[in-house]
């Protein structure tokens, strides 16, 4: 039982490049979310999904896209990377609305 | 605009002490209040959570106190140990969808 798996763990991008952060969970959880963590700002919600085919925006969605074609996977796409997107990104999942999230180990992204 | 305000930013206690971390919110629609523990290089891990229909919840050495009228909740760590040294985040959510996190408290427990 791997839980929530994020890849890659580290990434350096040049400004303007695009990339996809991968997230997969093997717990059959309906809810999945992406957060970014920045010093002094806690975790901020980027996008979330309450089931396959359903996604919605969080607090800071600009510059990011998501899709949820399967229950297991919830990739996060950076369309045109900017230095302001330098952060640690966490994917999380939970069974339903009555539970807290289980987080992955994070992806540390640097945009130069 | 920070939906959940957390204090203090950092905290140092002696082993065996009882660190207390406080959070406050404004939105009375919040109905789920979890606390997360995060070690360096790791993702946050759910520690304990409470709903607004109870005033206190204990799990092991961790206790949440909840004051609905004051819109505040706090985490108490009894008999703190050096292994409890971590960053702690409070959070709040409405119907379990969007979670709003505090800015975190870095706890150091001195042996």
Features of this protein?
heterodimer; A: 112 residues; mainly beta; seven-stranded mixed sheet; four-stranded antiparallel sheet; 52% strand; B: 111 residues; globular
Give a nutshell description of this structure:
Chain A has 112 residues and is mainly β. Chain A contains no helices and eleven strands. In chain A, strands 2, 4, 5, 6, 9, 10 and 11 form a seven-stranded mixed sheet that branches.
Cα separation of the termini of chain A: 36 Å
Which blocks of ≥5 consecutive residues of chain B have pLDDT under 50? none
Instruction: List segments of chain A where confidence is low: pLDDT < 50 over at least 5 consecutive residues.
Output: none
Shape of chain B: globular
User: Domains counted in the coordinates of chain B: how many?
Assistant: 1
Structural class of chain A: mainly beta
Helix content of chain A: under 10%
Sheet with the most strands of chain B? 6 strands, mixed
Averaged pLDDT of chain A, please? 94
For the secondary structure, the number of strands of chain B is 11
Structure write-up:
The complex is a heterodimer of chains A (112) and B (111). Chain A is mainly β. Chain A contains no helices and 11 strands. In chain A, the strands form 2 sheets. In chain A, strands 2, 4, 5, 6, 9, 10 and 11 form a 7-stranded mixed β-sheet that branches. Chain A has a 4-stranded antiparallel β-sheet with strand order 1-3-8-7, with no helix packed on it. Chain A is globular, with a radius of gyration of 13 Å. Chain A starts with a strand and ends with a strand. The model of chain A has no long low-confidence stretch (mean pLDDT 94). By secondary structure, chain B is mainly beta. Chain B has one domain: Immunoglobulins (Immunoglobulin-like), CATH 2.60.40.10. Chain B contains no helices and 11 strands. Chain B has strands at residues 4-7, 10-14, 20-25, 33-38, 45-50, 56-59, 62-67, 72-77, 86-93, 99-101, 105-110. In chain B, the strands form 2 sheets. In chain B, strands 2, 4, 5, 9, 10 and 11 form a 6-stranded mixed β-sheet that branches. A 5-stranded antiparallel β-sheet of chain B has the order 1-3-8-7-6, with no helix packed on it. In chain B, a hairpin with a 6-residue loop joins β4 and β5. Chain B is globular and about 40 Å long.
